[in-house]
Amino acid sequence: MLFPKKVKHRKHFVKRKHPVKEALKTETRGVTLAFGSYGLKAMKYGRVTSNQIEAARKVMTRYATKSGKVWIRIFPDMPFTQKPAEVKMGKGKGEPVGFVAEVKPGRIMFEIDGVENAVAAEALRKAGTKLPIKTKIVSRV
Known about the structure:
Layout: H1 19-24, E1 38-42, E2 46-49, H2 50-64, E3 69-72, E4 78-82, E5 95-103, E6 108-113, H3 117-129, E7 135-139
Antiparallel strand pairs: 1-6, 1-7, 2-5, 3-6, 4-5
Helix pairs in contact: 2-3
């Protein structure tokens, strides 16, 4: 699983922006293919956990076999907290339980190269099913 070596603050502030308005904003960086010939592009706003990124990476590398190379273009650097089960309201913020990557529409999340078109498309499709957001397969061609 991906997580930062060190963080400046253990707990991240709650975003004080309207979630619907935030979801309408599109990404400006990381919107074109940089390494591979095929990529998986985010179509909706969402937060992708390190576990979900790892699950998508595993299914892509297994399907692409030894000939393919996979690049991960997102990194989970924002900690998220959760309170334990059956705990009453109040008594402060919960403990950090993991890290998420905030993904806006247009972001290329994964790239693949070294395999033929059909294999790359199927590997990216399988990876997209592991993620909580709607995705689209893009190609350099």
